[in-house]
Amino acid sequence: MKLLNTDTLEEVREKLRTETEEMKFRTCVMDMEESCGFICAEDVFSPEDMPPFDRSTVDGYALAAQESYGAGESSPVFLHVCGQIGIEEAAEISPGEGEAVRVQTGSMIPEGADAAVMAEYTEEYAPGQIICCRPVSSGENVMRRGEDIRAGECIIRRGQKIGTAETGMMAGLGIRKIRVYERPSVTVISTGDELAGEGEPLTAGKIRDINTYTLSAAAEESGMTVLNKIRTADDEAEIRRAVQTASEKSDIVLISGGSSKGNRDYTKEVLEDVTGNVFTHGIALKPGKPTILAYDRARRTVIAGLPGHPMAALLVFRLVIAHWYRMKTGAKEPFLIPAVMGSNVSSNQGRETCLPVRLIRTADGYEAAPVYAKSGSISALSEADAFVMIPRDREGIRKGERIWAELL
Amino acid sequence: MKLLNTDTLEEVREKLRTETEEMKFRTCVMDMEESCGFICAEDVFSPEDMPPFDRSTVDGYALAAQESYGAGESSPVFLHVCGQIGIEEAAEISPGEGEAVRVQTGSMIPEGADAAVMAEYTEEYAPGQIICCRPVSSGENVMRRGEDIRAGECIIRRGQKIGTAETGMMAGLGIRKIRVYERPSVTVISTGDELAGEGEPLTAGKIRDINTYTLSAAAEESGMTVLNKIRTADDEAEIRRAVQTASEKSDIVLISGGSSKGNRDYTKEVLEDVTGNVFTHGIALKPGKPTILAYDRARRTVIAGLPGHPMAALLVFRLVIAHWYRMKTGAKEPFLIPAVMGSNVSSNQGRETCLPVRLIRTADGYEAAPVYAKSGSISALSEADAFVMIPRDREGIRKGERIWAELL
């Protein structure tokens, strides 16, 4: 059964992708030290070999491996120490036959040597003379030039989030600048006569605005910047002014209506007026059906009318807007957690279900316990650890079935 | 076998806990809107009931449930609509016998009503007159006052990280301020003659400083603020000055030596001089053995001398310093991922092993593939997704064994 006038989640994602094809997120060149947490905007290639020279990975003696052949506890090889190379020094010495050079972990391996023997397997029996009681093979205890990273190798891909590892590679390779995606700007608009203002005491029938704050927090967690938070009454003219201004100033506008019907109608009309391009009028998704999506071609702004219930608004934001942002920047999808469903769960066929769950640790994995919340519950928000998607063509998930959960 | 002069990871954690018992991290009261990402510093209790009044969870009619008893498709109940309550209105009407009040999702349930029937199961057959063809039980489609959250209930615990859900609960309950832990301040000191300066070309034997950047990024990711980054030569006086200044100005000082032996000796001597309280001289951990820990009682600063290799320094930072910070603030331990080991892995008995792994998705879970990296490799940093701890009393992990991995 396909619900009238609604798109599947997959269709919504595809429409949003197509509509915004020519929209590109702004990038900028950033100091490597400031880039942690940003998304890399172009492939980064190594400018040099790492290590830049053959390097000893042990404290000991560099030598031609063949000099050590046959060495053993009872048949040590005698070697003359012809010099030493500190870790900060260029190797200006070259061991010949019967010779070795003292090196530290990180020291350059000199010409003429191709291996290093660990100090533990040697003994200095006279000044400048050692015995070696273990053979090494060519390349042993040596990291070859370029063995870790070769010049020209792609070390950070477009879409990769800059974290500790990426920072470490840039530092090690002397890369001081990187092109990243600027954080897209978001305006959050909450509409509804029943919303009490900040710090206003709750009078009868009023409820407090939750969506402004949860959507702002979710946008920030997704790597966006919240430019502005606007609250309007259920008044078409007021909503129109707010949406127009927001569309001019931001890349993404999130409108969350109260739960009243009239309100939703205003939003739809306003989005049609402002953009002339509302392309989704509902998603076959539970929760999340009353979602409207528009793309303002002139101002290159995506505008989403999200459901009024906090949990539904958050899930649609994650499944549609955050997903789209990752797709546009090439960023990785979130890491999913494997779990076993802890009880039978039914779902509406024909409508994909997004089920909040708690993840309970068992001996060797997680059990997912559904969080059932009455419509509008806010404690459910903090009770759930993750959510599980139940496909449209399923009637539910059986107890004991293996599922993948996405952390909230 | 216990390695001479080293502590187990567990011993190190316990020593650090005991040494810093009287050290408290600073807290501050913060605007709720700014608090996302911070750690809550005291239990937060709900100041009010949520919802603040009995609320309809549907669009329809509020009534005394008994008025609907016996209603069915073929035997509808006739009701008089005695008024309506918008979602922003106080309920000033009270339905009597044979009466119902029109309500919206979120509307207050009036006196005399204890349930709501969905509009779908009613029909207006004349102005102000409806038929109802489905019975409701007491409480049906109503969220009772305090059902979601009761006044006085603890909604955010000390140690909880403020995220989307916590933000939503504070917003819903009108909590505008929250006491959080200030980010502790960190100074990162890198020592070593072999380190090339920023932007300096690599001359023979020099390598670039990686630890300053990876440790700074890891500290920021752990919720700390990096005050200062200092680079010193292998010079005892220079290191001493840097440590003294850093200890005065920050809560945590991270020193990462180059891999030379002399360097490590300087660090130990300097920490003894400055703090008189070096309590760990090595950890029975692979990698991570050359770790020195000190607590500067006078200045209340934890000083860690970390290994020179980037991967080892990062792992010790996570396993010791970040773990200690979570313990001090009551923050949750990281979410672990269940996986199956993809190959046999051996480890040194008597020394705990921290094994970097890649997590490869299989049909119903993850397979952990060990990342073997030569000492000092930086590409290994980005190759690994997570790490697995192999206990001291094990000789390794067998292929197919179930393990828990912590995401890097």
From TrEMBL, chains A, B:
<dbReference type="InterPro" id="IPR036688">
    <property type="entry name" value="MoeA_C_domain_IV_sf"/>
</dbReference>
<keyword id="KW-0479">Metal-binding</keyword>
<dbReference type="InterPro" id="IPR005110">
    <property type="entry name" value="MoeA_linker/N"/>
</dbReference>
<protein>
    <recommendedName>
        <fullName>Molybdopterin molybdenumtransferase</fullName>
        <ecNumber>2.10.1.1</ecNumber>
    </recommendedName>
</protein>
<dbReference type="InterPro" id="IPR008284">
    <property type="entry name" value="MoCF_biosynth_CS"/>
</dbReference>
<comment type="similarity">
    <text>Belongs to the MoeA family.</text>
</comment>
<comment type="function">
    <text>Catalyzes the insertion of molybdate into adenylated molybdopterin with the concomitant release of AMP.</text>
</comment>
<dbReference type="Pfam" id="PF03453">
    <property type="entry name" value="MoeA_N"/>
</dbReference>
<keyword id="KW-0460">Magnesium</keyword>
<keyword id="KW-0808">Transferase</keyword>
<keyword id="KW-0500">Molybdenum</keyword>
<dbReference type="Pfam" id="PF00994">
    <property type="entry name" value="MoCF_biosynth"/>
</dbReference>
<dbReference type="InterPro" id="IPR005111">
    <property type="entry name" value="MoeA_C_domain_IV"/>
</dbReference>
<dbReference type="InterPro" id="IPR001453">
    <property type="entry name" value="MoaB/Mog_dom"/>
</dbReference>
<dbReference type="InterPro" id="IPR036425">
    <property type="entry name" value="MoaB/Mog-like_dom_sf"/>
</dbReference>
<comment type="function">
    <text>May be involved in the biosynthesis of molybdopterin.</text>
</comment>
<dbReference type="Pfam" id="PF03454">
    <property type="entry name" value="MoeA_C"/>
</dbReference>
<feature type="domain" description="MoaB/Mog">
    <location>
        <begin position="187"/>
        <end position="328"/>
    </location>
</feature>
<comment type="pathway">
    <text>Cofactor biosynthesis; molybdopterin biosynthesis.</text>
</comment>
<keyword id="KW-0501">Molybdenum cofactor biosynthesis</keyword>
<dbReference type="InterPro" id="IPR036135">
    <property type="entry name" value="MoeA_linker/N_sf"/>
</dbReference>
<dbReference type="InterPro" id="IPR038987">
    <property type="entry name" value="MoeA-like"/>
</dbReference>
